[in-house]
Amino acid sequence: DERVALDLLSLESPRHRVGRVDRLAGSQEAIRRLDADVLCMQEVESYEALIQFRDRYLAGMGYDHVVSIDAGDPRGIECSVLSRFPLSDPKVWRDLPLGKEPDQIGNRANANAGKPLVMKRSPLRVTVEVPAEHVARLRKAELPGAPAAEAKPYRLTLFVVHHKSGRDFGFQREREAGVVVGLVQDLLKSDPEANVAVLGDFNAQLSEKPMAVYREAGMVSVFADRSARDAATTSHSSGRTIDHILLGANARAEFIPASRFVLGTIDRPEGADWRTTPPPPGYASDHYPVAIDLWPHDKPVEPAAPARPAPADRPATRGAAPGK
What we know:
The protein is of the alpha+beta class. The protein is 21% helix and 24% strand.
């Protein structure tokens, strides 16, 4: 199969761990089940830690290309990409401005009111390049007799995000979404044909305001046509869908809808509180991997369908706080 599998996996920061289950072994199991060509991750400790994890747990999987850049997060975590294909032009933006701190956060007075607010978890931008020979094999299988000379490298630019958590920080997630949209638009101004995906832990469901910012900018969820009450799209142990893969118009032309899924992984029992309940053996994270396949050659862009409001989201069904 010459398609490109693009998968999203959110790990769990050591500072949020309860119990002593080996989460690395659980993460290995999930990653090997996915067998992704490109794996986008959040809450990674460092480039060095990721290399150690790859070499110890993922040997033989072909992840020769690795990007993980310290973006200055106070928790010491960052976004990362493991890939079987070459990666280029990696970039993060430290302390992107988000305007001023509000007077209140939820029902509480904000001690930092009026001070500059910055984005502490920068998106990671990186471009995946699928070599022409891989594209040629696909074209030969899909279009027998197609000239090999027509095959060109396929490029997909990823913006891997990890938005602010907390039920009272929707205002910040909305501002962060606006900043990321601005970065995507800057790229498309310089390269209107760029294939773009924004993916990661958004800490927001599709009906919430931060996701509307992306939707209005033409970034569409791969599950946009599915009911928000469809349990098959749940990506977090709270019963919510807060991890997303959003595609721009160019990349949507190569998306294979039948390929999308959320991988179920071992989790605490329903109703358990993640703060106090030790996880079971084989546990990897409170987030579940989201996966899609793409055809790695540029196809004609279809006219955009009229935007429609996102359906109502599912309420949380477990004793978990909003994602980290």
